[in-house]
């Protein structure tokens, strides 16, 4: 079973400059079953950071694979990696997704989370401008 979810991140500003970083929802996914996975992908412009938060309905191992593609003018980069955490309903785990070269432009992070057993899985991908 594979469930996907994604939201393109966007924001609007007034004529004045925005001085503080704002947390922005890039996307989220939820799925349940045995050994299930879900993915989240979206766009964020000029990110200061990107992070993923995961948890399950019962404490268990969750594997997170991530990829971040960024481009700004003639500069672009791609970074990827993976980590495994133990998370549950009372222990949500948040980890950074490292920024690739070109992050002063637009980035498209892509996260795949996989459950190590049976249950309900949640992932929340966000970033700051």
Q: What is the CATH third-level topology name? A: Jelly Rolls
What structural class results from the helix and strand content? mainly beta
Distance from first to last alpha carbon: 34 Å
Largest sheet, if any? Answer: 6 strands, mixed
Count the strands?
10
Give me the CATH architecture, please: Sandwich
Strand content: over 45%
SSE order, as H and E? EEEEEEEEEE
- In the predicted model, the low-confidence regions spanning at least 5 consecutive residues are 1-19
Number of helices: 0
State mean pLDDT (0 to 100 scale): 86
What does the overall shape look like? elongated
Alpha carbon gyration radius = 15 Å
> Helix content range of the residues, please?
under 10%
CATH class call = Mainly Beta
Our count of domains comes out at: 1
Q: What does it look like?
A:
0% of the residues lie in helices and 64% in strands. By secondary structure, the chain is mainly beta. The protein has one domain (2-12, 20-128): Jelly Rolls. The strands form 2 sheets. Strands 1, 3, 4, 6, 7 and 9 form a 6-stranded mixed β-sheet that branches. A 4-stranded antiparallel β-sheet has the order 2-10-5-8, with no helix packed on it. A hairpin with a 2-residue loop joins strand 6 (60-72) and strand 7. The radius of gyration is 15 Å and the shape is elongated. Mean pLDDT is 86; it is low at 1-19.
């Amino acid at each position: 079973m594979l469930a996907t979810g994604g939201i393109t991140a966007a924001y609007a500003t007034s004529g004045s400059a925005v001085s503080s970083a704002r947390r922005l929802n890039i996307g989220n996914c939820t799925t349940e079953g045995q050994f299930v996975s879900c993915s989240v992908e979206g766009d964020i412009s000029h990110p200061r950071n990107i992070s993923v938060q995961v948890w399950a309905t019962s404490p268990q191992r969750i594997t997170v694979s991530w990829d971040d593609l960024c481009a700004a003018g003639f500069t672009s980069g791609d970074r990827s990696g993976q980590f495994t955490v133990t998370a549950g309903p009372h222990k949500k785990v948040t980890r950074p997704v490292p920024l690739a070269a070109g992050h002063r432009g637009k980035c498209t992070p892509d996260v795949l989370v996989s459950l190590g057993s049976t249950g309900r899985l949640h992932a929340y991908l966000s970033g700051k401008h």
